[in-house]
Amino acid sequence: MGTVGRVRLTRLAVALVTALPLITATASASRPPERPAIALTDVLPAVAEASPAPGDGFRLTSGTVITASGAAVPVAGQLAEALRPGTGFPLPVVADGRARAIALVLEPGHPDEGYRLDIGPAGVALRATGPAGLFAGVQTLRQLLPPEIESTSPQRRRWALPGGTIVDRPRYAYRGAMLDLARHFHEPAEIRRYIDQLSRFKINHLHLHLSDDQGWRIRIDSWPRLTEVGGAPGTGVGGDGGGFLTKDDYRELVRYAADRFITIVPEIDMPGHVNAAQVAYPELTCDGVAPRPRTDMRVGYSSLCVSADVTYRFAEDVIRELAEMTPGPYLHIGGDEAMSTPHGSYLTFQKRVLPLVRKYGKIPYGWHEIAQSPSAADAVIQFWGRERTSPSVATAVAAGARVVLSPANRSYLDMKYDMLTPGGLAWAGYIEVRTAYDWDPARLLSDVPESAILGVEAPLWSETLRDSADIDFLAFPRLVAIAELGWSPRAAHDWSSFRARLGAYGPRWIRDGVGFHRSPQINWS
To answer: Three-state SS for 182?
Structure first.
């Protein structure tokens, strides 16, 4: 039996053993136990301010309507679609205000993505300046209802929201997750499923790693062999898998994510991590000889030929075509682990390529190695290191760069939870839920001020991933820890509170069919 097969069987055994108490409890009970009433503060990620009004909640009934107008209507429709199956109520979306309503209102004065939620016996009012704020408030509102609200069939129960007021806003503008499609290709349906789960926790960026030594996963019309060769069967780690996104696939993912207020950030890794591109186009090597295809997990051995004009024609074509179909502001050009590119050549490459991103209307974005280049002064730098200082990043920040924090020993979702975890890697250490939660982005790099921090991101590399079950198991629940660090105020950072709220969320994942890791650090409901 191969490694992947052993990993699957091991993970299945772990899941069955872990779920046994839940199965036994379900079989022995004639009906589900009553859960404690949900409070305004029982939300993931934690809200900024909450003022409960005990006894003054709002009860949904068959007569409840949702009111909205203008740009608020699509968000109101999403709320209605989420609540109709479990309640069995029609919940029509109407324009006029009336009693017994959940009102979604756009008005000035709220922070970007912030919202105010007022809940009383006569109705609910959700207010924000823009639709993104309303959408964030809808995710909070859904968590204030019992988990059964997400059921696909009507449930007989009392659907009640706790009374009071929530005033909420994000700590950081950028709250991201990354999914690696290059080491193993994930189909559009799997990516959409991941987007759905990300949106529940106010994640607003999805970074797609689209090329690496093993495979090339996005169609580029001017260089068609990139996907014909680099997306062929057998181009994943271990020779497993293949596939790529057509331009229509990519545009549909961009649209699907935007409907959930998530911005797609595409990445083409250069000048290293390019073996797949060089297999397809040998002229991208300095000697014109195609390297052998690689399906192992080694890094650092490939490099574009920095002295060749064709390298920059290639880079510009790829950047241009990606920019044309990416409405978001960022285009990620990688830049990490270029150990086979001499330092001077690396700086030459960045000096020519970073301006190409700007030429096509995007903000340059790259792993923290690009901070070595003076051309990164207005770039976004993604820090993935484990050290507490970074002189090159500090220098770039002083020149105007912004930073997204992805410390590998805290936020890399492909790291194992512990030594017995099936799948995953361990080069950055084991990351259990508390390890992912117990750090402060503002204090990670002592030589970078918080004012330079754009946000946080949780990368999920795919060397050991094959399907959505693998994504679920490694991403959840740790991704929620990173989401809370990105959204919630520093004052709300509290492990005991997070641990309790996370444990109470478990039934929602079970109902969604998300095979999350049942961490022993959490008391799961």
So the answer is: coil
Give Cα 496 distance to the centre of its chain: 24
Q: Which of 187, 283, 337, 450 is catalytic?
A: 337
164, 39 contact by CB (below 8 A): no
Whether the CB-CB separation of 353 and 312 falls below 8 Å is answered with: yes
Has residue 38 got a pLDDT over 80?
Answer: yes
* Residue that wins the pLDDT comparison between 294 and 18: 294
What is the C-alpha separation between 428 and 445, in angstroms, rounded?
17
Q: What is the pTM of this model?
A: 0.93
Give the sign of the dihedral formed by CA 408, CA 413, CA 418, CA 420.
negative
Direct distance between the N- and C-terminal alpha carbons of the chain, in angstroms, rounded to an integer: 36
- Compute CA distances 51 → 48, 170, 194, 226, whole Å: 11, 18, 33, 55
Compute φ and ψ for 78, nearest 5 degrees.
-65, -40
3-state secondary structure 317-351: HHHHHHHHCCCCCEEECCCCCCCCCCHHHHHHHHH
Given a cut of 90, is residue 302 above it in pLDDT? Answer: yes
Q: How confident is the model at residue 150 (pLDDT cuts 50, 70, 90)?
A: confident
| d(C-alpha 400, C-alpha 270), whole Å | 23
Q: Which two tokens stand for residue 293?
A: 């295809």
Q: Is 258 a residue whose pLDDT tops 70?
A: yes
Considering all CA atoms of the chain, what is the largest pairwise distance in Å, rounded to the nearest integer? 76
At residue 35, the pLDDT reads: 54
Token readout for 369 is 């190695």
Distance CA 388, CA 133 (A): 34
Distance CA 218, CA 330 (A): 17
Q: What does the alpha-carbon distance between residue 415 and residue 460 come to, in Å, rounded to a whole number? A: 9
In the chain, count H helices and then E strands: 15, 17
Q: Calculate the CA dihedral of residues 370, 373, 377, 380 and round it to 10 degrees.
A: 0
When pLDDT is averaged across residues 239-251 and rounded to a whole number, the result is 96
DSSP, res 506: H
Whole-number Cα distances in Å, 229 to 48, 145, 275, 325: 49, 49, 11, 22
Alpha helices (H) along 29-105: 73-87
Exposed/middle/buried for residue 361 (C-beta within 10 Å: 0-12, 13-18, 19+) = exposed
| Annotated catalytic residue 463 | no
CA distances 489 to 40, 46, 282, 419, Å, are 16, 8, 50, 33
Phi, psi of 330, deg, nearest 5: -110, 145
CA 423 to chain centre: 20
- Report the run of H or E that residue 139 belongs to, with start and end: helix 131-143
Paired strand residues for 93: 66
Amino acid at 343: H
d(CA 333, CA 319): 9
Residue 76 DSSP code: H
Q: Please state, in angstroms and rounded to a whole number, the distance separating the CA atoms of residues 452 and 72.
A: 32
β-bridge pairing 160-161 and 58-59: antiparallel
pLDDT tens across 346-364, in order?
999 999 999 999 999 999 9
